[in-house]
Design goal:
- The chain has 411 residues and is of the alpha+beta class.
- The chain has three domains: 1-165, Reverse transcriptase/Diguanylate cyclase domain (Alpha-Beta Plaits), CATH 3.30.70; 171-228, DNA polymerase, domain 1, CATH 1.10.150.20; 243-385, 2-Layer Sandwich (Dna Ligase, domain 1), CATH 3.30.1490.
- It contains 15 helices and twelve strands.
- It has helices at 15-23, 48-51, 61-67, 78-92, 115-118, 121-136, 148-155, 171-176, 188-196, 202-207, 210-217, 221-228, 261-281, 315-326, 356-375; strands at 7-12, 32-35, 43-46, 72-75, 99-103, 106-110, 140-145, 163-165, 247-258, 284-295, 301-312, 335-347.
- The chain has a five-stranded mixed sheet with strand order 5-6-1-7-8. A four-stranded antiparallel sheet has the order 9-12-10-11, covered by helices on one side. A three-stranded mixed sheet has the order 3-2-4.
- Helix 7 (148-155) links the parallel strand 7 (140-145) and strand 8.
- Helix 4 (78-92) packs antiparallel against helix 6, helix 11 (210-217) crosses helix 12 (221-228) and helix 13 crosses helix 14 (315-326).
- The longest helix is centred in the middle third of the chain and has 21 residues, at 261-281.
- The radius of gyration is 23 Å and the shape is globular.
């Protein structure tokens, strides 16, 4: 038995694009970018051939085509990605039951107790890489380290098709000059604030006075110092055992900018139904509704929330709460993107209503959910949505998990 934990982070390389290239041999070796079905969607992911020209996730299509005129645009197929991801996750379970799915193309594994069967973590990594390549024709990068933080860092160090091992005795040396932005959890905003404190590397962060970090960042100050030192005690938690749902939300970029109230309300109703159906599926209701609006110039946006007196999860109630927030705000520009989120959640057992009309409504909603769960989004929907061209999100969320939505907001 090893003296320390052995964690592994597996990251599929250019996952959506790789799946598309394997599904269509004519795309192999060519620069491609996967986008949603809407006319104004952004790049979800791009092949490494496209990345060589500077095509990046989040770019607008016109911007990506300017970088790479020969870029091939491919409309994403969620079913292919979820199927492939689920199969890969099942394959991982043959090596350890301790698997925490981080997103549709990433997962942590704790293989500490698997070494008595498979020998070394490196052997497990090579076996998985070979099986994934043989079964699906795609590659992955794997990081092996004493904890999740370092394993994630290691998997990013060699791409594509890499394998990087960080040993305990090498942690200090590796982190000394490592930019802080490479650590999972250090976003652009946090990086900017740390840079203002003359902290640019993990080594500098690890040596920083904890009291100084705490004064600046509050209770996360001590955690930041630990991250700079490569310390992470969080366990690899199988998704069926992790914490309860924190929030349920959905957002969409509209096919064209809208300014008419009626058009905006139609999209809000659609989003409210998506959020409500997911909340009911997972047996949660919430008190706090958040409305997010991004305007036509792309850069201007606002987010507002309202906490209700009681918990809700029915779509019409979520819709009414979203409208109430919208009516408190002036819209200086046409709307480009809308989002609705339900939070402040609690799990609840289903109860029969004492009132006949309310029970009829509950039964109707349950029947509509059942049909849509089986046959897809908006097969049965509100009459006011029948003329809407948008029928849900066209690209699966990067935060998707095959076993549920725990710990993430459903996008």
């Amino acid at each position: 038995m090893p003296e320390h934990r052995i964690c592994m982070h597996i990251d599929m390389n250019a996952f959506f694009a790789s799946v598309e290239q394997q599904a269509n041999p004519e795309l192999q070796g060519k620069p491609i970018a996967v986008v949603g079905g809407g006319g104004r969607t952004v790049i979800t992911t791009s092949s490494y051939e496209a990345r060589a020209f500077g095509v990046k996730t989040g770019m607008a299509k016109w911007e990506a085509l300017r970088c790479c005129p020969q870029l091939i645009i491919v409309i994403g197929d969620n079913k292919k990605y979820t199927y492939t991801s689920s199969r890969i996750m099942e394959m991982m379970k043959e090596y350890t039951p301790l698997i925490e799915v981080f997103s549709i193309d990433e997962a942590w594994l704790d293989v500490t107790h698997s070494l008595s069967i498979f020998g070394t973590a490196e052997r497990i990594a090579y076996l998985l890489k070979a099986r994934i390549k043989e079964s699906f024709g795609i590659t992955c990068s794997i990081g092996i380290a004493p904890n999740k933080l370092l394993a994630k860092l290691a998997s990013d160090m060699q791409k594509p098709d890499g394998l990087t091992v960080i040993k305990p005795e090498d942690v200090e040396r590796i982190l000394e000059r490592m930019p802080i932005k490479e650590l999972c959890g250090i976003g652009k905003n946090m990086e900017r604030h740390l840079n203002m404190m003359s902290i640019y590397t993990c080594g500098e962060l690890g040596r920083c006075d904890e009291a100084r970090l705490t004064r600046k960042f509050g209770i996360i100050g001590s955690r930041l110092k630990q991250m700079g030192q490569g310390v992470d005690d969080s366990p690899v938690t199988p998704n069926e055992e992790d914490d309860e749902v924190k929030s349920v939300g959905h957002s969409m970029t509209l096919r064209q900018d809208v300014s008419k109230r009626g058009d905006i309300l139609k999209y809000l109703l659609q989003l409210s139904e998506m959020v409500g159906r997911r909340a009911r599926r997972y047996g949660v209701s919430g008190r706090t509704i958040t409305l997010h609006v991004r305007f036509a110039d792309f850069y201007s946006s606002f987010g507002k929330q309202n906490t209700l007196k009681s918990h809700i999860n029915q779509s019409d109630e979520i819709y009414k709460a979203a409208i109430a927030i919208l009516d408190t705000t002036e819209l200086p520009q046409p709307v480009r993107q809308l989002g609705v989120k339900l939070s402040n959640l609690k799990y609840q057992a289903e109860q029969l209503s004492l009132f006949q009309e309310m029970q009829k409504k509950s039964d109707a909603i349950k029947a509509m959910d059942s049909v849509n769960d089986r046959f897809g989004e908006f097969k049965v929907t509100f009459g006011s949505l029948l003329s809407s061209e948008d029928k849900g999100s066209h690209v699966i969320s990067p935060a998707w998990r095959p076993d549920g939505i725990r710990n993430v907001a459903v996008k």
